[in-house]
Amino acid sequence: MVPQASPRLSSSTQPRVKKSLGQHFLHRTDICERIVGLLALQQEDRLIEIGPGSGALTRELENAPHRLLLLLEKDSYWIAERSRSGASVTLPVHMDALHFDWGRITPEYPWKIVGNLPYNIASRLVWDIARKAAGLTKAVFMVQNEVGERIAAPPANRHYGAISVWVQSLTRPRLEFTVDREAFTPPPKVQSVVLSLEPLSLGKRPPYPSALARLLQICFQQRRKQIGVIFKQSGFTELVAALDILGIDPIRRPETLTPEEFQQLCDVVYCIPSSKKLKKIFAFENFLR
Hints:
- The structure is a single chain.
- The protein is of the alpha/beta class.
- The protein has 2 domains: 19-204, Rossmann fold (3-Layer(aba) Sandwich); 209-282, Helicase, Ruva Protein, domain 3, CATH 1.10.8.100.
- The chain contains 11 helices and 9 strands.
- The protein has helices at 29-39, 56-62, 76-85, 122-132, 145-152, 162-170, 209-220, 227-233, 237-246, 259-271, 276-282, and strands at residues 25-26, 46-50, 68-73, 90-94, 111-116, 136-144, 171-179, 184-185, 192-199.
- Strands 4-3-2-5-6-9-7 form a 7-stranded mixed beta sheet, sandwiched between helices. Strands 1-8 form a two-stranded antiparallel ribbon.
- Helix 3 (76-85) links the parallel strand 3 and strand 4 (90-94).
- Helix 1 (29-39) crosses helix 2 (56-62), helix 4 runs parallel beside helix 6 and helix 9 crosses helix 10 (259-271).
- The longest helix has 13 residues, at 259-271.
- The model is unreliable at 1-5, 9-13 and 284-289 (pLDDT under 50).
């Protein structure tokens, strides 16, 4: 069976692709259909699409059940195109998704999120959405294969890092299927993967996310060092004591600790009465990209 494709971009009728925006437009209809299927859309769902571009995925979303479709597009040409051709419950918004207030997605006002994410901002977007969108019910993203592997990697895997721990502390990520370069116009230099995120319940989320973000920064900037050495050299004696309390061997490296162990370290810090200085340091949330 020959894969179906949406109408290709023509250089004579369409603007040049903007490399600064990381634009690679998905044109395979069958892939768009699979992405929409992963969202399991219902008639009451509110949906955000990040970077609709030429609209191949948008058209499939508009044909699926939903209450409202919000399009976030930074490119002025494509937001004008989506405004002209959108369905009655499609709301195009001309803005950079990095500047969207994801905190507006609350449990009282839930949304699903989908998008073919620009490779140069994908990690940052996923980090922010996982942290701030407490009312997220499902997310499905097209990302660079390397980014997807990093997000879904288990401990002791070469791809495992800060973003792995962070996203897995807030959601349940899953690599759904890979997508060849030829499915895009223009073809990217690397393979892509479709990543889904199922949010964890609020009760399973880390109670001190700012502390977790700071801890990940400290540890994964020196990922090849032993965890005990990292804490001693950083002057965090409370964290050395926390390792002993939790039964975590100080000779282990950060890449071997599970998301649960990182969260437990944060919990212990906040339970130690003498760690006021450490708590102050950890109160600053430094988002890792």
